[in-house]
Design goal:
single chain; mainly alpha; globular
C-alpha cells in the first residue's frame, strides 16, 4: 500500500480530503472559497464534499491515471463558474484573491498530471503560469490588506507589520521567479515552506482554539493544499 501512495502529493491530497470532510460534516459549501449562489440547495454540498474526497484520494494514488484530473478540473470549475463572475461583478483585490487561491489549487493538480506525462504538452506550462500569477496576487493582497494580514500573525511573534510586508514580498518574488523560470524551482520550494509554516504556526493553533469553526478548518486545509500545490509545481519544474 505504501508504494501506491504518492508521498510528493501528500499535502495536496490531504488538503482536498480535509476540505471534503469539512464540507460533509458542516453540510455547507466551502464558504468564501466556494461562493455558491444561495439558490443552490444545501444538499449539493454533500456532492461537493464527495468530489473533493474522491479527487484527494486520486491525487494520492500512483497509477490513478486520468482520475487525477478530477480535482484540478473541479477546482477550475470553481474558478470559472464562481470566482471569475465575482471578479467581473465587483473587481477588487479581495475578489481577485479568492480566484487566485482556487486557481493555485487547480494549478497544483494540473502540474501533478503533467509530471505523470513526462512534463510534455501544454498542461505543465499552463500550471506554471497560473501558479506564478496566483503567487503575485497573494503578494499584492498582503500589501493592500496589511492590517488584516498583520492581525493574523500569532500574538507571540513580534513586529507583525514587518511579517505582513515580508511575506507579501516573498510571495511576489516567488511568483516572478516561477513565471520567468529563473530560480523557479527554488522559489516554489520556499513558497511551499512558507505556506507550510502558515499551517503550523497559524492555522493549527486557530483550529485548536476554535474546533467547531468551519472557517478555521477550511482555512487550515486551503493553506495545506496551497503548500501541496507549490510542491507539485516544484516537481514539474525539475
Amino acid at each position: 500500500m505504501r508504494g501506491r501512495i504518492d508521498t510528493g502529493a501528500l499535502p495536496y491530497g490531504v488538503g482536498a480530503i480535509g476540505l471534503g470532510l469539512v464540507t460533509i460534516h458542516f453540510h455547507r459549501f466551502a464558504l468564501q472559497w466556494q461562493p455558491v449562489p444561495a439558490s443552490v440547495p444545501a444538499n449539493f454540498a454533500w456532492i461537493s464534499g464527495l468530489v473533493l474526497l474522491a479527487g484527494g484520494i486520486a491525487a494520492l494514488t500512483r497509477g490513478a491515471g486520468a482520475a487525477r484530473l478530477l480535482l484540478p478540473a473541479y477546482y477550475f470549475l470553481w474558478v470559472v463558474a464562481l470566482h471569475a463572475p465575482a471578479v467581473a461583478r465587483a473587481p477588487s483585490v479581495g475578489s481577485l484573491l479568492g480566484l487566485a487561491e482556487i486557481l493555485a489549487l487547480a494549478s497544483g493538480g494540473t502540474a501533478l498530471v503533467a509530471s505523470g506525462r513526462g512534463a510534455r504538452g501544454w498542461l505543465g506550462p499552463a500550471a506554471r503560469m497560473a501558479f506564478g500569477l496566483s503567487a503575485l496576487v497573494f503578494g499584492l493582497s498582503h500589501f493592500v490588506y496589511t492590517d488584516l494580514t498583520a492581525a493574523m500573525v500569532p500574538g507571540w511573534i513580534p513586529h507583525k507589520l514587518y511579517w505582513a510586508y515580508a511575506t507579501g514580498a516573498a510571495h511576489a518574488a516567488a511568483g516572478l521567479a516561477i513565471l520567468s523560470g529563473i530560480a523557479g524551482r527554488l522559489a516554489a520550494t520556499l513558497l511551499a515552506v512558507m505556506a507550510g509554516g502558515f499551517v503550523v504556526l497559524l492555522h493549527i493553533p486557530r483550529v485548536a482554539a476554535a474546533p467547531s469553526s468551519q472557517l478555521e478548518w477550511t482555512m487550515l486545509f486551503i493553506a495545506t493544499s496551497i503548500a501541496g500545490a507549490a510542491l507539485l509545481v516544484r516537481r514539474w519544474l525539475r
